């Protein structure tokens, strides 16, 4: 099993089912903690793992990936900012 359903606070409008790779243990910050809903959110956000966001530098190439009677669907080869050309992806 690689998915878990978790209990979320009322008012969350997202799916309660998460992939195991997206879950991580919660570590309470005792020294910096102030008991208020806003500070709880800030402390929680500090613990979220951060993944660098890739930015598109340029489109190197494109090709038709699929054709239907009415439309063509393109696939693009993307050069990412601060990445070598060999790491370009479609």
What does this protein structure show overall?
With 90 residues, the protein is of the alpha+beta class. The protein has two domains: 3-47, no CATH class; 56-87, no CATH class. Helices cover 12% and strands 30% of the residues. The protein has one helix and four strands, in the order ββαββ. It has one helix at 37-47, and strands at 3-5, 17-19, 56-67, 72-80. The strands form two sheets. The chain has a two-stranded antiparallel ribbon with strand order 1-2. The radius of gyration is 21 Å and the shape is extended. The relative contact order is 0.12.
Task: Please give a handful of descriptors for the protein shown.
90 residues, 2 domains, 30% strand, alpha+beta, two-stranded antiparallel sheet, extended
Short summary:
With 90 residues, the chain is of the alpha+beta class. It has one helix and four strands; from the N terminus they run ββαββ.
Question: How do the helices and strands line up, and which of them pair or pack?
Answer:
Elements: E1 3-5, E2 17-19, H1 37-47, E3 56-67, E4 72-80
Antiparallel strand pairs: 1-2, 3-4
Principal-axes geometry comes out as extended
Query: What characterizes the major β-sheet?
Result: 2 strands, antiparallel
* Rg on CA atoms, Å: 21 Å
Helix content: 10-25%
Pattern of helices and strands: EEHEE
Strand order of the largest sheet: 1-2
The poorly predicted ranges are: none
Number of helices: 1
Overall residue-averaged pLDDT value: 79
Q: Which range does the strand content fall in?
A: 25-35%
């Amino acid at each position: 099993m690689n998915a878990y359903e978790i209990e979320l606070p009322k008012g969350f409008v997202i799916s309660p089912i998460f992939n195991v790779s997206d879950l991580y243990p919660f570590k309470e910050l005792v020294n910096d903690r102030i008991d208020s809903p806003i500070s709880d959110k800030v402390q929680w956000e500090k613990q979220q793992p951060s993944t660098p966001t890739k930015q598109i530098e340029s489109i190197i190439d494109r090709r038709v990936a699929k054709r239907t009677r009415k439309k063509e669907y393109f696939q693009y080869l993307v050069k990412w900012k601060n990445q070598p050309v060999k790491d370009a992806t479609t």
